[in-house]
Each structure stands twice: as structure tokens, then as C-alpha cells.
């Protein structure tokens, strides 16, 4: 039987501070920026400034504004049904299992460059296919 | 965008850049608006492709709206930029496996999976998977309890929950960032449950707060839940301590009535000699939901009873399939297939089911499609028909391939007997014209709560089993509208007070779960139902909500208590 979760008292004060108004005001974008900054600094020793994020956010805002996700998802669904089994397996490894190109290469016995090339080609095929379906829908 | 930039971009998306290349990619990204646009465009597509690939894992779910247009730029951007984070086997994640119950494995990038135990320290890029058991991870004062059959990836920053993953309890003392197929979550100094099954994300916050990222920041505070799906559903949690206490007392009551759980009942007698049945299946499922281990003596006894006697009625077949599919679908696959075969062979000519099943069952093969080999009586009723459909649905979810003819006939029946007001009635013996004037109040064809909830649940289950190109969507929508307009937790809507309210609540709950909604109209069905049950439980642990003369042969306290446990400890699969 599940036990009832009861916060322990010694940590109460620190938990309270986590709910302070200043934390509440932190926007999701600020959090995302800070997370990425921390990661890049620790992993790759890359420093990025606010201008970098401003440029990226503009690009993502623009892309989203021009993006009909429902229609695109349905088109992609159809396109995924058309691709070869080998390509579909690549997508499963990459997106379901989260494998990197190197790990997929080991799994499939291909070269890393070959996997990179194939994943790039799959993206291009899917993009072309979606555009073709969009054109057919308009016609 | 030149060839170098294109190569860097795609290798970034493939998680293939080393630290130096990553720095070069970010420098290019800073300098090139075109590269930023291309990254944004590809990242949005990547999110959709990822969602579609993950959808394939959970077969036959209804199509859902894509969430990307509403997604926070911040979340998509962060995901897009941190794809690199699963490169190779990185530095330590900071987490340590504190305990493993059952079996858990870790997949190291590029290596074969290996079993792990307490003390194992996963690193960035590692994939941790639990099977029939749970695992607990700790990092400083933070503690994560990973449910069975869950997979997560240590992908700094934070952890990625793969679709199907459940963090039964995340008790964090330091900032934790979670990515899921439905979006990201941030928490610090909080206690919460994360359920990333069925292609959605449900977050229950018990302490502190969790911030979810959608088109806007969604803050979920203590005592609240939020579900990210096509939209966002929010509501108040039922206090866990009260639930656990009520369920604990209810189980103690069932244990005190062991003899009645296995007492044969012969109240069903239409179209055939009365088949014997017991409460063993229902009690088994209730105790399982309540968290009883298979090693518990009563659960073990009920499991032995269930598996050891013939499948004699539709209720037995349906409930057995439901119980065994939840307990261990692989271990009980033979019995689940037997139940599925019995149900397929007993479907009435009009698509309904009656109480009796075809008693003689030749060997049922352990592989291949379960095909209908016989015909049941001419007609049955909608109540038992809903159970039959839910039993078949449980069998299908455990991997049984079912005869599409059976599914099509069942669906055609439900669609044919919907009332003009959007609800459903009892339709005993398939009679579409019967009305209150000449029938007892129990079997009216006028719309009422439990029949409508049962019909909605059945139609949604059938749609999940076999897509019907939206042909049942309108019927389901009208049924849900009826439920929203008529919902009441303390009695069966449009029936006299006291008429089988637990049957109504359990069917409403099943419909809500299959629809993946917490609301019928303005009613939070679980919160209202749980509130009613917590108020009406007897001090000795049981419920006796049924007050009429109907079903006099039943042990209503045992039946109601089983149904109440199943409602309170609902199946969230």
C-alpha cells in the first residue's frame, strides 16, 4: 500500500523560499536561457549572451507563426508511412531510444558518417513529402 | 547557408557534435539568421516526428491535436539546442540508484543493456529502464521513484521521460528539469508525480510547485493537477492520505469477507441456464489496484481461483481479461486469449452480448488472431455488452489480435441504439422500442447515467481497437455532452436515488479514463466521485450504496466495495 507523503518539517523553511514571489515571476524563457547557459558553460565552455538568445527566439517565434502543426503532423504521418523500413528504424533509434549518430552506427553496423548522411536525407525526404502533400491539398 | 553549416546543423540534430564542433556551431548560429531559421524550422518538425514515432509504440490511440503551435518557444528552443546532450557517455548525472525492486536495466550508449542494482551511478546519455519492478534514484536530497515499465534518459540538463514513463514520486531539494514528449517541466523543492503515458503528461503536485512549459508558463501548485494533452486540463487533487486510508480500510473489509468473494452467484438466467460466477475477478482486480503484491495470500488465492475454473459467463470472461491484463499480461496471456475467444464466440447476432458464454472452448492457440467461431444468442443487454467490450479492449491492450468483425458488429450496435438526446438506455434483448411504460424502471431504454457512460466507454474502447474514420466521433461527443449535462456523483443520473450508484461511478470513471479527460462538462468526475465515496464509506470500510430491490441475490457490500476501490484507485493506463 502506498504511504502517505508528508513533507518533513526540517526542510519547511527552504521549501517556502522556493515559492517566493520572485521565483514565480521568472519566465519560462529566462529559465530556459539559464539552463542552456549552465549546460554550455559546463560541457562545452561556450558563453552565450542575451543577443544570441534574442536572435534565436525571433527565429523560433517566426517559425512557429508560419507553422500549422496540425496539418503538418497529419502530412508527416502520411509521409512516415511511405518511407522505407530502414529509414523508419533510424527514426525509432533516434527519437524513441534517443540514440546518437555514433550509437546508431554501432547498433546498425554502419559508419557514423553514413548514419549522419542517412538521417539528413530522411529529414529532406520528409520535408519534400510534406511540401508535396501541402501542394496537393491546395490544388 | 553553406554546406559546412548544413552539415553542422544536421549533425547537431543527430547528437553528433563534440565540444569544439558544438562551439563552432553556436558561433555560426549567432552569425547567421538563415541558420537560425533553418534550425527553428527543423526543430519544430523534429518535435512532430518524435511525437509520431512515439505514438507508434502505443498502438491505436485516437489521433490527437499537435501541441507544437501552443508550445513555448523557450521549451522547443531548449530541446532543439540540447539535442547534443546525449552525445556519448558523458559526465556523471549526479544521480545514484538507491534501490531496485524487481528488474531494472541501464543502456549505455552504444553498449548492450545491463542489469543494475543499488549504487549504480548513471551518466549523461544513459538510458534507464524498469521492467516488472521499480527503481529509486537519489541525488543529494532529491529522490525519484521510477515506476515499473518506465524508461528515462539522463540528458543534461535534467532528465527526459520517454513516453510511457511514470515517476511515481519526485521529491526534489534542488532544481530539476524534466523533458517529456509533451513538453518540459521545472521543479525545485517540491513533491510531485509525473505520468507521461498515453502520449500526454499528467502532473500531480503534492508539495511546492511545478512549472510546465506550454504557450505560457503553467504553474501547478500543491494540491493541484495539470494534464498537458491537446490542451491543458487542471483541477484539485483528492488528498492522497485520505484515499490511501479509505482504500486500506476497504481492503481490510474485503479480507474479512473472504468467503463471500468466492461464493457462487446464480442470479443471471436469460437465454441459458444460470451461469455460476463469483466476485473473485472483481476482488482480484480491486486488491491489485490497491497495491497488494502477488505474494499476498488472498490475492494469490483469488488468482488461483480465477485461473483454475471454467469461463462460464460474459462477466467472468470480461473481468478476468481486465484483471489479468493489468496484473501481468505476458504471464497470463494464455488465459486472456481464452477469455477473448469466449467473448468473440458469444457475441449476439445483433452485436450485443448476453450473460452466458459458449461453454465448450476448443484449444485456443497462443498466437495469431482470435477469430469468431460461433454465434451467441439473438440479443442481450447494453450493461453486460459494455463489460464484454471492455474485456476485449483489455485483451487487445495486452497484445491479443481480435477479429475485426466482432469489433465492427459491436460498434454498429452501440451506434444503432443511441437515443436522440445523446444518451443510451438498457436495451434488454435488443429491443430498441421498449420504454418505461411497460418495463421495470431498471431496464428502461430511456437514457440514464450508467448506460450512457458504459456506451461512451465502449465506443471509445472500440475506436481505440480499430479506427473507424471518425464514424463514431459524433456519437461519443453527444454521449459526453449528455454526461456533462446530467453528471451527479451521489446517484445514477436519471434514475431513482440508490440505483446502483457504484456501477454508474465505475462506468463514468472508465469512460473518463478512456477519453483521457478529467471533466464531463464542468464536472471533475474523479474529484466529485471520490468526494462522494470518502463521505459515504462505512467506518468498517465497506460501501453499501445500492438501496433498492434490484439485484437482490448480490452481496452488495462486497460488490460496491470492489467497485469503489476500482474507482478510487483508477487505472491510468
Notable features of this structure?
heterodimer; A: 139 residues; mainly alpha; 8 helices; flat; B: 573 residues; alpha+beta; nine-stranded mixed beta sheet; eight-stranded antiparallel beta sheet; 19 strands; 40% helix; globular
Describe the 3D structure.
The complex is a heterodimer of chains A (139) and B (573). In chain A, 76% of the residues lie in helices and 0% in strands. Chain A contains eight helices and no strands. Chain A has helices spanning 12-18, 21-25, 28-44, 50-65, 69-82, 85-96, 101-108, 112-138. In chain A, helix 5 (69-82) packs across helix 8 (112-138) and helix 7 crosses helix 8. Residues 1-27 of chain A have low confidence and may be disordered. Chain B is 40% helix and 15% strand. Chain B contains 17 helices and 19 strands. Chain B has helices at 3-13, 19-31, 33-57, 73-81, 240-256, 258-261, 280-289, 297-308, 314-327, 333-345, 382-397, 404-416, 449-465, 473-486, 501-515, 525-536, 556-568, and strands at 96-100, 104-107, 114-115, 127-130, 135-139, 142-146, 151-154, 159-161, 166-172, 176-180, 183-187, 190-195, 201-207, 209-213, 217-221, 224-228, 232-236, 519-520, 523-524. Chain B has a nine-stranded mixed sheet with strand order 3-2-4-7-8-10-11-14-15, covered by helices on one side. Chain B has an eight-stranded antiparallel sheet with strand order 1-5-6-9-12-13-16-17, with no helix packed on it. In chain B, helix 7 packs parallel to helix 17, helix 9 (314-327) packs parallel to helix 11 and helix 13 (449-465) packs antiparallel against helix 14 (473-486). Chain B is globular, with a radius of gyration of 25 Å. The interface between A and B is large, with 76 and 98 residues.
Quote the average pLDDT of chain A.
Answer: 72
Number of helices of chain A: 8
> How much beta of chain B, percentage-wise?
15-25%
Count of extended strands of chain A: 0
| Multimeric organization | heterodimer
Amino acid at each position: 500500500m502506498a504511504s502517505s507523503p508528508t513533507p518533513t518539517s526540517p526542510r519547511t523553511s527552504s521549501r517556502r523560499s522556493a515559492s517566493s514571489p520572485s521565483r514565480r515571476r521568472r519566465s519560462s524563457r529566462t529559465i530556459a536561457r539559464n539552463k542552456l547557459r549552465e549546460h554550455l558553460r559546463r560541457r562545452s565552455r561556450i558563453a552565450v549572451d542575451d543577443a544570441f538568445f534574442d536572435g534565436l527566439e525571433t527565429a523560433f517565434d517566426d517559425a512557429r507563426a508560419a507553422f500549422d502543426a496540425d496539418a503538418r503532423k497529419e502530412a508527416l504521418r502520411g509521409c512516415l508511412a511511405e518511407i522505407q523500413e530502414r529509414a523508419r528504424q533510424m527514426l525509432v533509434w533516434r527519437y524513441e531510444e534517443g540514440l546518437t549518430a555514433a550509437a546508431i552506427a554501432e547498433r546498425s553496423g554502419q559508419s557514423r558518417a553514413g548514419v549522419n548522411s542517412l538521417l539528413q536525407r530522411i529529414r529532406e525526404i520528409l520535408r519534400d513529402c510534406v511540401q508535396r502533400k501541402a501542394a496537393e491539398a491546395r490544388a | 547557408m553553406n554546406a559546412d553549416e548544413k552539415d553542422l546543423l544536421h549533425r547537431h540534430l543527430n547528437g553528433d557534435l563534440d565540444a569544439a564542433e558544438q562551439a563552432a556551431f553556436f558561433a555560426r548560429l549567432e552569425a547567421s539568421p538563415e541558420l537560425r531559421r533553418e534550425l527553428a524550422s527543423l526543430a519544430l518538425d523534429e518535435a512532430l516526428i518524435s511525437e509520431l514515432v512515439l505514438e507508434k509504440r502505443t498502438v491505436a490511440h485516437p489521433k490527437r491535436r499537435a501541441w507544437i503551435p501552443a508550445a513555448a518557444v523557450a521549451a522547443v528552443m531548449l530541446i532543439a539546442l540540447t539535442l547534443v546532450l546525449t552525445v556519448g557517455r558523458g559526465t556523471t548525472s549526479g544521480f545514484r540508484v538507491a534501490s531496485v525492486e524487481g528488474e531494472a536495466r541501464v543502456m549505455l550508449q552504444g553498449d548492450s543493456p545491463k542489469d543494475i542494482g543499488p549504487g549504480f551511478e548513471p551518466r549523461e546519455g544513459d538510458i534507464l529502464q524498469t521492467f516488472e519492478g521499480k527503481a529509486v534514484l537519489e541525488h543529494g536530497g532529491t529522490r525519484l521513484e521510477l515506476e515499473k515499465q518506465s524508461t528515462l534518459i539522463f540528458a543534461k540538463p535534467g532528465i527526459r521521460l520517454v513516453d510511457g514513463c511514470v515517476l511515481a514520486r519526485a521529491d526534489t531539494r534542488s532544481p530539476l528539469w524534466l523533458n517529456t514528449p509533451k513538453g518540459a517541466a521545472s521543479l525545485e523543492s517540491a513533491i510531485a508525480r509525473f505520468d507521461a503515458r498515453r502520449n500526454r503528461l499528467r502532473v500531480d503536485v503534492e508539495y511546492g510547485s511545478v512549472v510546465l512549459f506550454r504557450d505560457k508558463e503553467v504553474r501547478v501548485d500543491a494540491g493541484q493537477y495539470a494534464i498537458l494533452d491537446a490542451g491543458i486540463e487542471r483541477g484539485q487533487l483528492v488528498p492522497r492520505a485520505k484515499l490511501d486510508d479509505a482504500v486500506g480500510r476497504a481492503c481490510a473489509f474485503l479480507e474479512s469477507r473472504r468467503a463471500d468473494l468466492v461464493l457462487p452467484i446464480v442470479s443471471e438466467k436469460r437465454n441459458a441456464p444460470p451461469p455460476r460466477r463469483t466476485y473473485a475477478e472483481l476482488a482480484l482486480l480491486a486488491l491489485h489496484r490497491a497495491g497488494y503484491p502477488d505474494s499476498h495470500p488472498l490475492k494469490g488465492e483469488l488468482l488461483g481461483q480465477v485461473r483454475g475454473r471454467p469461463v462460464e459467463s460474459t462477466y467472468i470472461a470480461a473481468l478476468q481479461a481486465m484483471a489479468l491484463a493489468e496484473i501481468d499480461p505476458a504471464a497470463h496471456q494464455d488465459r486472456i486469449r481464452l477469455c477473448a475467444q469466449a467473448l468473440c464466440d458469444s457475441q449476439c447476432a445483433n452485436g450485443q452480448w448476453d450473460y452466458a458464454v459458449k461453454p465448450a472452448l476448443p484449444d485456443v492457440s497462443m498466437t495469431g488472431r482470435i477469430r469468431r467461431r460461433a454465434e451467441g444468442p439473438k440479443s442481450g443487454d447494453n450493461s453486460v455488452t459494455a463489460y464484454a467490450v471492455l474485456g476485449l479492449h483489455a485483451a487487445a491492450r495486452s497484445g491479443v489480435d481480435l477479429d475485426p468483425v466482432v469489433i465492427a458488429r459491436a460498434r454498429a450496435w452501440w451506434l444503432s441504439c443511441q437515443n436522440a438526446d445523446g444518451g443510451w438506455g438498457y436495451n434488454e434483448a435488443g429491443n430498441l422500442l421498449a420504454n418505461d411504460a411497460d418495463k421495470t424502471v431498471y431496464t428502461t431504454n430511456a437514457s440514464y447515467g450508467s448506460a450512457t457512460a458504459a456506451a461512451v466507454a465502449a465506443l471509445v474502447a472500440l475506436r481505440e481497437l480499430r479506427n473507424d474514420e471518425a464514424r463514431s466521433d459524433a456519437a461519443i461527443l453527444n454521449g459526453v455532452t449528455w454526461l456533462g449535462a446530467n453528471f451527479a456523483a451521489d446517484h445514477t443520473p436519471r434514475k431513482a436515488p440508490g440505483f446502483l450508484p457504484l456501477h454508474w461511478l465505475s462506468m463514468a470513471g472508465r469512460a473518463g479514463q478512456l477519453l483521457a479527460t478529467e471533466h464531463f462538462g464542468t464536472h471533475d468526475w474523479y474529484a466529485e466521485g471520490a468526494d462522494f465515496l470518502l463521505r459515504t464509506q462505512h467506518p468498517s470500510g465497506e460501501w453499501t450504496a445500492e438501496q433498492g430491490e434490484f439485484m437482490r441475490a448480490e452481496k452488495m457490500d462486497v460488490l460496491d466495495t470492489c467497485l469503489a476501490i476500482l474507482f478510487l484507485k483508477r487505472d491510468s493506463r
